[in-house]
Amino acid sequence: MKVIVKDSFNIEAPEGFAVEGLDDPNNPHIPRRNDDYVFRREHLRDILAYLQAPAGDGLYITGPTGSGKTSLVLQTAARLNWPVQQVTCHGRLELGQLIGQFQLVNGNMEYVHGPLSMAVRDGHILVLNEIDLVEPSELAGLNDIIEGQPLVIPENSGEVIHPHPKFRLVATGNSAGSGDRLGVYQGVLRQNLAFLDRFRIMEVGYPEPDEEAKVLEKAAPVLPEQIRQKMIQVAGEIRRLFIGTPDGGQELSVTLSTRTLIRWAQLTVAFRRAPNAVAYALERALTLRAEPEEREAIHRIAADAFGDIWGEEDDE
Fold first, then answer.
1. Do 176 and 222 reside in the same domain of the chain?
2. Which of 177-181, 188-192, 246-250, 312-316 has the lowest mean pLDDT?
3. Smallest Cα–Cα separation from 36: which of 204, 205, 215, 210?
4. 140 lies in which domain range?
5. pLDDT for res 107
6. Signed CA dihedral, 245, 246, 250, 255: sign only
7. Which of 16, 89, 106, 235 is 20 to 30 A from 132 (CA-CA)?
8. Which residues are within 8 A (CB) of 204 and not within 5 positions of it... i.e. 6 or more apart?
């Protein structure tokens, strides 16, 4: 099936420019489409290029928390009718859990294929979120699969699964696989160089203010534009203090991601009758999980940005 990029992704593209999609829109593993999702041109270009011609590579998407790494993959797949197997990784994840294991089914022990086996067999996209939390030794078992070698399952009578032509492997991480040099994220591990060498890399940062304005307009259209712009301004300052610099260090331990920014805007609408609804929503979207000193600092940043809009109420 040919998918017209301009129409399906609502983005500027040459007339008639199309990419290949799948013709079965009813597969239950196809992600749910969000028609309000805003694609960024350079990111869409990179992921479409990978999905159309992986050339023996995996795709590693790196970027700060809540910047839209996973949603980019899912919303692209939704428009291409491409089924997805999605796994959120952690420090105890083992390769065997991805491949499959014996389970009790209707009173009998049966081998149940895991997300990796299903993706390899059926031509799905396997998305491994937070892959930099996994022990490098476990991920080494993916090397041959990425390169197109068959998946052999000794536990299931030596079953051999040859990769489907549409199988793709996408990993996301807050680091680029070389560890977290600023100490911003907990549990991030330095990955094996041979494993990383099998991926092409793309970076998804936070959107530019004008792009984020479009996102907020779709997420909370009833919110006045002036309020949305001030929220974006606050988010930019908090992110700057969160990321810090190698010399100055990190000044905040929490950040206001695009995901949190949308939550803040939507909660402001939901709590619009509360005194100082913007501050009330900010607490519930972000700052109630911050340390008291950081909470005060963030609200001071917001109060300075909003000025008279912030209201007379004190957030102490």
1. no
2. 312-316
3. 215
4. 2-203
5. 87
6. positive
7. 235
8. 43, 61, 62, 63, 67, 68, 69, 72
